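Record 1 of the preview.
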Amino acid sequence: MPHYLKELEKTDLTGADLSGVDLSGANLSRANLSEADLSRADLTRADLSKADLTGANLSGANLYGAKL
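->
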């Protein structure tokens, strides 16, 4: 994924299908990811600080080094 698509701070991604997406190193701080499908997503080193993950599916997601 191009770097400019990884600047997702404060983005509303409610219910988004992000299954299997490479979000490694993405800035998702303060993003709304409630009810999003992040199954099998690569969130390595992603910044998820203060993100709303209520009801999000994180099964099989790679969270190695992610900031939560």
